[in-house]
Design goal:
This protein is of the alpha/beta class. The protein has a single domain (about 10-219), classed as Rossmann fold (3-Layer(aba) Sandwich), CATH 3.40.50. The chain has nine helices and five strands. Strands 2-3-1-4-5 form a five-stranded parallel β-sheet, sandwiched between helices. α5 (about 105-115) runs antiparallel to α6 (about 120-130) and α5 (about 105-115) packs across α8. The chain starts with a helix and ends with a helix. The structure holds thymidine-5'-diphosphate. Thymidine-5'-diphosphate binds near residues 64 and 79. Thymidine-5'-diphosphate binds near residues 50 and 109.
Length: about 220
């Protein structure tokens, strides 16, 4: 075994999730963070929900692009089904290998979008997600916080068409943002809240500083 492999084997898996409203810049920051973690010698598995597995890609297509109506509870179950399969098939095996799973969206998205956005019971939605994922919680959740108007302006410049969730009205997205901030306040040890109104470089620096502070030796 090379020195690199030996160190890799000694390191424990880390589960880091990125959350935030549509247009908050998660994808850009995920790419930068993946680069930084790789520079630290970590093996990174970058993934997302919905759609992190082949079955999940099919679920994603329904939940984001189905043309007709989907009832709120059916929508919640579709996200939960994607999650159940993704965690078992991809995330847990990577964590067991000692890798870093860097994941765009996880159960907090369901609580914010289906719980607050669709006005279902947030506690039930969280319980459903935890059942689906057999209780797996992230080591750290990075919340990119951006007000609704600024997020919409960013989306308008980057999208030619909106998916089912993005197309929701501004009060939906305002509820999503408020729910995320409530979640972060309720679990301050798990959440790192980052002001996403700043420049890409400033946000990335804030994330790295937060990661060092929160995860320290585990990195
Ligand atoms: P995606 O294109 O991945 O959006 P983004 O780039 O903003 O992450 O689409 C995912 C959409 O699905 C997004 O609008 C949030 C929504 N969503 C839920 O409503 N519930 C969930 O549990 C998850 C994971 C995502």
């Amino acid at each position: 075994m090379s020195e690199q492999e030996t160190r890799g084997a000694e390191r424990s898996g880390l589960f880091i999730t990125l959350e935030g409203g549509d247009g908050s810049g998660k994808s850009t920051q995920a790419a930068l963070l993946e680069g930084w973690l790789t520079e630290q010698g970590r093996t990174v598995v970058r993934t997302r929900e919905p759609g992190g597995t082949p079955a999940g890609v099919e679920i994603r297509e329904i939940v984001l692009h189905h043309r007709g109506d989907i009832s709120p509870r059916a929508e919640a179950l579709l996200y939960a089904a994607d999650r159940a399969h993704h965690i078992e098939a991809l995330v847990r095996p990577a964590l067991a290998r000692g890798e870093v799973v860097l994941q765009d969206r996880y159960l907090d998205s369901s609580v914010a979008y289906q719980g607050a956005g669709r006005v279902l019971d947030p506690v039930q939605i969280r319980d459903l997600s935890l059942w689906a994922a057999e209780g797996l919680l992230p080591d750290l959740t990075i919340l990119l916080d951006l007000d609704e108007a600024a997020a919409r302006a960013r989306l308008d410049t980057s999208r030619t068409r909106y998916d089912r969730l993005e197309a929701e009205k501004s009060d939906f997205h305002a509820r999503v943002r408020a729910a995320y901030l409530d979640l972060a306040a309720a679990e301050p040890d798990r959440f790192l809240v980052v002001d996403a109104a700043r420049s890409v470089d400033e946000i990335a620096a804030g994330i790295v500083a937060g990661l060092r502070q929160r995860l320290g030796a585990r990195l």
